Every structure is written in structure tokens, then in C-alpha cells.
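Deliverable D4.2, example record:
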Amino acid sequence: MNLLSQILAGSTGLALITVGILEIFFHGDQRFYRIFLIRPEDVRAVRMWAMNVGAYNITFGLGIAVGLWLVNFSSSPASGSAIIIFCCACHVFLGFWLWVTEKRLLVSAIGQSFFPALVIVFYVLLH
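Output generated by the structure prediction step:
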């Protein structure tokens, strides 16, 4: 996997872990209303979903980290590339799906899918 794809993948992984932490611990914090669109009266109702989505994001971020480790330090870097491409492809789709399900989250949808899409594009172009 080329260096540019690795840098973008690492940035994606860090973003996923950061957003996951926000989703788990701060989904009801009104400072993040623009990101989550959760009204104070709905916090209890969405807690389980927000915490699970946060865990998924952290898991994908850790998956990318494992993939990067395999690319750089294992005897089978192709396995690391496959993990990274899978995680990024999932988030390209999930970003699109976020927009499909909630049009007001277009900026979040682009944020979720843009770097992962670039990882895949540069992997294909520079492979």
C-alpha cells in the first residue's frame, strides 16, 4: 500500500476513533448537536444506538490501525491492505447511507466517506 493511502487511512482511523468516543460519551452534549442532531429530550431514547454506533466506529478505526500495522510490519502486507480497503469501503457506503437516511447530515456524510474514498482511489491508482 502506497504512503499516501496509508496516511489517509491513518487519518480516517483516528477520525473514526475520535467520533466513536464522542458518540459514546458526548451524544447528549448540546455542543455537538450539529453533528448528532439529538435533542435533549431524546437523549435517553437514542443512548443505546449512539453508544453502539460509537463502538462500531472505534472498532473500524482499530481495524484500520491493525491493517496499517500488518502493511508495515508483517510478512503479509496484502492482508493489511485488504483490511484497510474493507474498512474504508464500508465507510464510503456508510457515509452515503447517512445522507440517504438524514439529508441534514450531508457534511457529516461527506466527512465520513471522503478520506476513505481517497484511500481506495489512491490505492488503485498508485498500486
